[in-house]
Amino acid sequence: MTARPRSGAPLAAVAALACGISLAAQAPFPPQPPKPGTPKDFQVPAPKRFTLDNGLQVAMVQWGNMPKVRVSLTVRTGKAFEKANEVWLADLTGSLMREGTATRSATAISEEAARMGGSLAVGAGADTTGVGGEVLSEFGPRFVELVADVVRNPAFPESELPRLKSNLARELAVALSQPQQVALQKFRQVLYGDHAYGRVFPTNEMIQGYTVEQVRQFYRATFGAGHSHLYVVGQFDPAAMEAAVRKAFAGWSKGTLPAAAAPKPASTRVIHLIDRPGAPQSTILLGFPTIEPTSDDYVALTVMDALLGGAFASRITRNIREEKGYTYSPYSEVSVRYRDAYWAQNADVTTEHTGASLKEIFAEIDRLQATPPDPKELSGIQNYLAGTWVLQNSSRGGILSQLRYVDLHGLPADYPNTYVKKVFAVTPQQVSEIARKYVKDEQATIVIVGDRKVIEEQVKPFGRIADQ
Amino acid sequence: MNRSLVTALVLAAAVAGPGAQAPQKVAVPFDYHTLDNGLKVVLSRDTSAPTAVVAVYYRIGFRTEPKDRTGFAHLFEHMMFQGSQHLGKNEFIGLVESNGGILNGSTRFDFTNYFQIVPSHTVETILWAEADRMRGLNITQENLTNQQDVVKNEVKVNVLNQPYGGFPWLDLPQAANTNWYNAHNFYGELDDLDAATLYDVRQFFRTYYAPNNAVVVVTGDIDPAATLGWIRRYFGGIPSSKLPPQPDISEPRQEKEKRTSREDPLANRPALALGYHHPPRDTPEFYAMGLIDQILVQGNDSRLYQALVQKRGLTGSVAGGANPMLGNMFDVKGPMLWTVYMIHDSDKPADEIVKVIDEEVGRLQNAPVTREELELALVKRRSQLYAEQEEFVGFGRANLLAVFALFDDDPGKINRLEEEFRKVTPELIQRTAREYLRPTNRTILTIAPKQEAK
User: Fold this and answer.
1) What architecture is domain A48-249?
2) Exposure winner among A422, B64, B135, B263, fewest CB in 10 A?
3) Which residues contact A57 (CB under 8 A, 6 or more apart)?
């Protein structure tokens, strides 16, 4: 057999015909991969959209062949609207909202959703808060009624507050024991300063101080039909669903969203070392502010990101994982919020290779800035993004996220079906230009959670170490 | 041998109450073949998106890895990405991604899998690549050393530098089981990982990575006939091997409760897990336990959530199930644990939580559930079956077809699960709870934080 000559022993199992069947009858195994067939057309499924009198915008997509439907009432509120002394108040509002309505207890909500083969959750994000879940198709319209009750008529029972505060305090304690969360907190704090995006965690005292009145106030100030979307994706009876939506949400007050301050992220090349004595790894989070989804260059930026560190076959991953073995799961990302984004490289690296890992990450950035990628490397990444685009839009959850993304950022309606074209329009020269224009490595904030006494000397060459 | 069974995807309307939409029934279409070399093949068409899942499962999991090489089954999984005869290091990953796909591999109790989720027009290319690495690996010492480093970093990021690392999926089997195969460190001791040699890699491949120990599953927007032709072409010539006999992986009936505690210097809140030996696969009790799982721990309506979280505030959430964090109740062949676990506060001690769990379990043991409670468990279980199939852009369906072919020679089981759950009676639930949720059938694991955060 034609084992590729390598320095080690070739492990050609086919050569070891211990008790195998004769290969004589078989055609020879082709040495090159067969070419793929012709890609099938793919369109992100278009929603049916309508708006209620109170401003609630509805988008419904019939999709798939499994008898389920996903419903999300997405309100344009969240952590971005918390004041400096209100960190996680959006979360607490969501938790308390789930504790019952004027006519239903928390247990009744849980049981009703369960009888529909699903569950109902409230989740607060940075810019949006979602109320919803997924149920068996035949219960879709009834589930919409349940979602509407939870968001329109919350009882906010004071009796449940101490328990929910204990839960938040426990979540906080657990998060602060995870090095990745500690790194994120510092990174956001450095980038965003006093803005809500910079406040990842509250203090325990803050949590304990929250009152039901604060929750009610946050709800009154930031929930309303006029800045909400209802998404329905899956299998459902369209007429019955539309009727249920109109009935359940008619008369919900429009509300007025207060203005949220615009973030002003800033970054300088400083290393923030957070000591984790004896840690076998250093958790690295390295990044800088960048352009957000409404920018003309945004899609090209995501192509550059996938090639540099986003994909498994990306340069940084190949280097520090597959060549050097410094780490297991490094990845870069463009992390996006409303009118805001930053680029970041994440990696948990062996303590003794902390400095070496930084060196390789910056070397890969420099190399991409200096030299356009080989067209073949780029087209591989473009195919990867085009293929994963189809995957991202081939599940109820994925389709719903896409609708939410387009609506939050105010992207044109044709965005989902022009994205792939924009990906393929990027040239090798542009990738380098984008890397030079937007990868501000000389201004990168570098956060490292690790064993300070071992890594301090290693990381010194890569920037000033901030005072503790 | 070529058995074929094709069922159309049927969405049959059943009787429903007035005003409600009729519930629908899902039947998964599939073809099942076994090639002359023993390779099992399952093909299942689903045209809801122009994507496909290509999955190859080998009947070797971490449970039965060599005794002096803990963690080797998983380390070996990494080696499958390090080069085969026609694809050098990085080239397998590059081929999949540059064809628009994503990929991964995972090592579990009773299998190791490799899967790609790809645009459906690239299936032939991906099958060729999977066949190339089933034909033989081409690993250098340099690549082995590299992946030993990567895997050690994996253990560090997931266990050694992580609070609650390995809790409970890695800890609990070691505490609850007595047979080495079920009770060793599946991630591997770092020394054992370092000790692995190219010889070990070669032996392991020769022993287990043969077509008669594997199944290839392709699901999605495919032409089954053409896909079968490609599989015959690329895999058909790979010789089968003489497989070693399966070792005895049975666990004796547990007669005495076990309690064990581990200090976690990285954690700042205590944690608690209970593991009960699960009824054997495919027995009536197995399906009854699947419904008990729904009644006790799945969803906010479950009895343990209601008792521990909603009513008493002893914790904020309760997780659990069969094979938690690693799969579902169907994708384990040998002994497994039904598990409940949570993180809690020091002022709400584990004993208080266990007492409440005992009360709730006692209710199940002392009286049969009502018809209404059984119906609720069934509707939740049906919904979860669909979720298990749809998981990870349809990978879940390939997973179930693969394990039912590999473990049971019967991928059609995927369409009979709902019926099996329907056979469960309130009396069987009571009997199953009495035998399997005995305190003497369980292990209680507590995690003690080094210091409580202020």
Assistant:
1) 2-Layer Sandwich (3.30)
2) B263
3) A49, A51, A228, A229, A230, A407
